[in-house]
Amino acid sequence: MKNFITFEGIDGSGKSTVSKLVAEKLKAAGYPAVWTFEPTDSKVGQFVQDCIRSHSDPFVTSFTFIADRIQHCKAITQWMQEGTVVLCDRYAESTYAYQAAQLEDTIKNPLKWLQDLSKDRILIPDRTFLFVIDPKASLARIQHRDELIPFEHLAFLEKVHNNYLTVSKGKRFLHLDATKSIDELVTLCYNDIIK
Ligand code: ADP
Ligand code: TYD
After folding, report:
1. Domains of the chain with CATH codes
2. Global pTM?
3. Which of 114, 143, 161, 168 is least enclosed by beta carbons within 10 angstroms?
4. Residue closest by Cα to atom 9 of ligand 1
5. How far, in Å, from the CA of 132 to the mean position of ligand 1?
6. pLDDT tens for residues 172-194?
7. Which ranges of the chain would DSSP assign to H, the alpha helix?
8. What is the pLDDT of residues 36-76, one digit of tens each?
9. Whose CA is nearest to atom 19 of ligand 1?
10. Which ligand has an atom closest to residue 131 CA?
11. Is 38 in the pocket of ligand 2 (CB under 6 A)?
């Protein structure tokens, strides 16, 4: 059984839909489970949302995403100590993939810089699912949304997509074909978590 599971992928890849259904399926089977997300709805998380929408300096955005996560880890630790399975919609690889794309022309090796900033300050998940999809297809899925945020355009999401593939090479990661049906993806995640 895995206890701390994160869901990653570009906007519109299906993370929220699938992770919420997996949480419901776990609960229905009698496993205590909680679904959570980043950016969080704390004050820091709300500030992060403002940073994204107001095209803030990428360094400010990077530090605030990481600050939000460090704070979030306190709640995650508490849930885990209570024996609850924690499912988190976006986590550290979001920062590595998105903020490295934002910082690529500003500093050398932004990926390593961002990973070093987080090292030893955040929890390491037991499993990270990466929802892999062509950015054109994921953007098509979210065109109907009332608001598209500044990150949600093709050129940027192509970079994020490539960064995700770069940072998700270890044993912790399971790549999922996000074009499979929702039911199929829920079953794949669920079976992997309870294994
Ligand atoms: P994300 O959280 O990754 O941004 P969402 O879960 O909000 O993505 O899904 C974006 C849109 O795509 C929603 O309209 C959702 O119903 C749809 N969707 C999610 N997963 C799938 C799937 N596997 N196949 C087809 N459509 C999907
Ligand atoms: P979210 O509301 O989860 O977007 P979506 O449901 O469309 O996937 O996240 C808002 C945006 O914030 C999204 O474009 C991804 C971005 N983001 C980062 O850039 N860095 C991070 O560390 C996180 C957690 C999210």
Report:
1. 4-194 (3.40.50.300)
2. 0.98
3. 143
4. 14
5. 12
6. 999 999 999 999 999 999 999 99
7. 15-28, 43-53, 58-81, 92-94, 100-103, 110-118, 135-142, 154-167, 182-194
8. 999 999 999 999 999 999 999 999 999 999 999 999 999 99
9. 14
10. 1
11. yes
